[in-house]
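PROTEIN DATA CARD
Card holder: Glucooligosaccharide oxidase
Chain length: 474
Origin: Hyaloscypha bicolor E
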Amino acid sequence: MLIPKAAWTLVVPILASAAAVNKHTKLQECLTAEGIPGPANLTFTITPFNLRLPFTPVAVACGVKAGLKINPKSGGHSYAAHSLGGEDGHFMIDLKYWNSVVVDNTTYIATVGPAGRLGNIAQSLYAQGKRAFSHGTCPGVGVGGHVLHGGYGHASHSWGLALDALVEAQVVLADGSVVIASNTSNFDLFWALRGAGSSYGIVTQYKFETKPAIDQLINWDLKYVWTKAQARQVLDVFQAYANSTDLPREMSARLFIAASGVNFWGVYQGTQAQFDPIFNALLAKIPGTPQTSNIFSSDWIGSIKQWAFMDITMPLDYDIHENFYSKSMMTNWISAPELDKFTDYWYSVANSNTRDWYCIIDLHGGPTSAITAVPHDSTSYAHRNALWKFELYDRVANNVAYPAGGQNFLNGWVDTVKTTYPGTLGMYINYADPGLTKHEAHTEYWLDNYEKLSKIKTKYDPYQVFMNPQSVNS
Ligand SMILES: Cc1cc2nc3c(=O)[nH]c(=O)nc-3n(C[C@H](O)[C@H](O)[C@H](O)COP(=O)(O)OP(=O)(O)OC[C@H]3O[C@@H](n4cnc5c(N)ncnc54)[C@H](O)[C@@H]3O)c2cc1C
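Structure generated from the sequence above:
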């Protein structure tokens, strides 16, 4: 591989079976011959974001030679610990030092290393000429995995996903070659990377088209406690709103549902005078009176800080973890009976669950959304038409075991829609659900793009070197 050896962080193999020990030996011999060191702190390097899934990878830049499956780790935020392999015994390559952000002051193209974390990237782009692109809200997420599978945040309804800003990727392929993927070079690979990237290689450099950061935004956080009937009415209001031209492209809207009530969150790219009539018309349709209401204007970085809920400057040795199960739904129009069942479950099973759960509902697509405006076949991201994006999350304290069978809670909630939903319910691989079988993952994450993805996999990685339990098959 052409990548400088000194830059890799390597994980020492810890294997038990004879075959595995053999692979380990081959790997170790190769590493020693190449002068590649092991990591200084193995435990730190292999502790996943989701503590429920503590997989043990093996290491080496000679992984292919030793017959190992390889997984790059950028920010390490995969919900299914896919950057550790998603199961024991993989070769994990930690890219954590590859985190530079440089904006070209003529083209405003940003060249970004895969392990850049979103909070640091946003600040660095802003410092280099007040530039920005759309991405998620959590400042600790690595751009590496985020952009290869979507990348949704408060700017996405207006500007599209993070992957829509990607104009070029430098990729190390399974045969060790380094190629450029873009609209003019290896376009099939570029198509596949933007939605299913972890199955095709190691992206060592990203180029993003940036925009001028918006200097005036309106942010809001309204806390409601609705009756079940009111909550059900709100779902109708929001679904109709997402599906209409009343929702301005410049607005993002999100419901954060928890046991204590619902926060209505959002961001409007524009002035207070532009915002007021639009927002007041929407509020008039929402039942009840908010218990608390915080509506304020900010600049770009002020808005990023507001929705991060933590400091947005991330240290190199970021060390935050949670212990959870999560699911997603990426749906088009949801029928009234399905919304009835969803709300019944919310007000019975969910509200009586004493664990720390939440459900985030975003107005993702629709006639005014920049995500839907991108032609459906131009990237492998399969959910452009999804009106709704749901994230369901159920966590326990880091020092206790997630309960056996605890997954039934969110599986049951998703089933209220899934069992009668016409066609395949989409799911978002950036919220990877390790409970899905490989076939379910292929179908739900990539819908009708899967067949094409599989053909491209056969071309670029026929022996499935880049593999996790849900990756695209060659
Ligand atoms: C606290 C938290 C908040 C989040 N908030 C949001 C949000 O607001 N919006 C949103 O859309 N998503 C969000 N996510 C989901 C997040 O986008 C995904 O988990 C994302 O894949 C993480 O990327 P990473 O580089 O940090 O993770 P990693 O675990 O390093 O990587 C994730 C996957 O991508 C692969 N990969 C990583 N780097 C590369 C590379 N350079 N080349 C090829 N493959 C690579 C890995 O092998 C793995 O399969 C959040 C996740 C967490 C934990």
